Amino acid sequence: MMMSEQFNEQFSERPFNRLLLTGAAGGLGRVLRERLKPWTKILRLSDIVDIENVVAGEEAQTCDLADRAGVFELLKDVDAVLHFGGISVEDKFEPIMQANILGMYHLYEAVHKLGIKRVIYASSSHVVGFYRTTEQVNADSPLRPDGFYGLSKCFGEALSRYYYDRFGIETVCLRIGSSFPEPKNARMMVTYLSYDDLLELLRAALFTPKVGHSIVFGVSDNQAKWWDNSKAAHLGFKPSDSSQVFATRFAAAFNSVDEHDPAIIYQGGPFVLAGPQYSE
């Protein structure tokens, strides 16, 4: 039994009245939608597109994060925010700016003005994508984003830090690696985060009594490690899965590494090569 499942069993009633999950129509949003329900009486789901098949215990609200009034309406009567909304891949700067930068500002202004005390922010490991794969990074390492997407996540981390220092709004920034049912390539053998470990990470981020402003890498207990989570030990996040069970699938890829390929040299992988094509 997963720790999150054991944790759920202790509740005689659901601890939150209303949680907000942004990006609910996205890849991870769809995964989390059902898994978050034991924690809240009402799960409010939001995305820029319509949410389908809404059932009892759910609310759906379409919202463009660039729409300030819409974001304020979205956050009314919310106890805490799990912010997975925005653009999650490399793109031109303008759409990333609207969704991930302006939208992030609107979200924190609403959080502040409406008195919400905690945000779980889906940041990304791409904030440090230009570190080499031979280096190990922790939460205090200087940021080295690998594209416009990574830059926008750097902004989000800095903005959330400001709102904590200025207004006391607690945030846990999740520097998510690669969260899929299984690794898709050799790089993901290092960055893999299982869905069960993602849920455990959210549990730690949401239910730890005091988190201040925390940064934690979202990664399972994989054999190869680029990221050091010792700075987030207070969260008590302990992944139970590992990519090692998939190791035989990528043995050939590890034996044919091009040591001059930037996508191999740097932790950001293909993202380090994606940016320039969007800046023209």
- The run of helices and strands is HEHEEHEHEHEHHEHHH
Beta-strand portion reads 15-25%
How many separate structural domains?
A: 1
What is the tally of beta strands? 7
Distance from first to last alpha carbon: 50 Å
* Average pLDDT number: 93
CATH class: Alpha Beta
Query: Uncertain regions: pLDDT < 50 for 5+ in a row?
Result: none
CATH superfamily: NAD(P)-binding Rossmann-like Domain
How big is the Rg?
Answer: 18 Å
Describe this structure in words.
The chain has 280 residues and is of the alpha/beta class. It has a single domain (3-278), classed as 3-Layer(aba) Sandwich (Rossmann fold), CATH 3.40.50.720. It contains ten helices and seven strands.
What is the structure about, briefly put?
The chain has ten helices and seven strands.
Helix and strand arrangement:
Elements: H1 3-9, E1 16-22, H2 27-35, E2 40-47, E3 58-62, H3 68-74, E4 80-83, H4 93-114, E5 118-122, H5 148-167, E6 170-176, H6 188-191, H7 195-207, E7 213-218, H8 251-255, H9 262-265, H10 271-274
Parallel strand pairs: 1-2, 1-4, 2-3, 4-5, 5-6, 6-7
Helix pairs in contact: 4-5
Q: Any key phrases for this structure?
A:
Rossmann fold, 280 residues, 7-stranded parallel beta sheet, alpha/beta
